Amino acid sequence: MINEHNQRYSKGLETYTVDLNEMSDWTEEEKGRLHGYHPNLTAKAEGNLSKIIGKNYRILYQSLLITERK
Fold first, then answer.
1. How far is residue 61 from each of residues 31, 44, 56, 66, measured CA to CA in Å?
2. Would residue 59 count as lying in a domain?
3. Residue 70 reports pLDDT greater than 50
4. Using one digit for the tens of pLDDT, what is the confidence trace for 6-38?
5. Is residue 66 part of a domain?
6. Does pTM surpass 0.70?
7. Residue 48 three-state SS
8. Residue 65 maps to a domain
9. Phi then psi for 9, rounded to 5 degrees?
10. Could you tell me which residue ranges the Cathepsin propeptide inhibitor domain spans (predicted)?
């Protein structure tokens, strides 16, 4: 796959080359940790979060309105 792509590049059919790097054989879990994902950490929602979420959206919406007026 890599060789075929790079051959197309040498013929002018592609605009970039590809190669392997140190992350090429990483598992999905290893890639996830790169972005801060930790599968052993779990979050539990307690109670009704709609009031909190609703309040945050209102604040965001109001800040967008203020930004648009400037």
1. 34, 27, 9, 9
2. yes
3. no
4. 999 999 999 999 999 988 898 988 888 887 766
5. yes
6. no
7. coil
8. yes
9. -60, -45
10. 1-30
